[in-house]
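Q: How would the structure tokens look for this protein?
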Amino acid sequence: MYTNILIPVSFDASRDNASAFRVARTLASDGATITLLHVMEPVPGYVASQIPADILAGSQGEAEQRLKDLAEAVPGAKTEMMSGHAGRSIASFASSKGVDCLILASHKHGLGDYFIGSTADWVVRHVNCCVHVIR
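A: Here is the predicted structure in token form.
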């Protein structure tokens, strides 16, 4: 079983976060650390300059609250927020925190994924721990 589990969380309705949480509880050792991580992609400068600062700050606060609400489904889970490229941020967090298992709820692949790839594909290729992809 695993002692340090990371679950990257997306608020996209097509992601099956609930299944990822069930898998984490099943694979976790007694006393395991489970962390829910949400990565906010940065808003491009040319867009951010057109959005009032209070709205930008409010969106981060809303994301933090949604993450905390989701964490209630995983008793004892910690939450973390990051900003940056989703795949790189997830891999960096996993490496720096000694994650031994990453459980990622992925969307169903579409044509666009063949040209630009998906976050799940990127993460699977770049992390040095076990990865379970939930579809």
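The mean pLDDT is 89.

The first helix runs from residue 17 to 27.

Upvote if useful.
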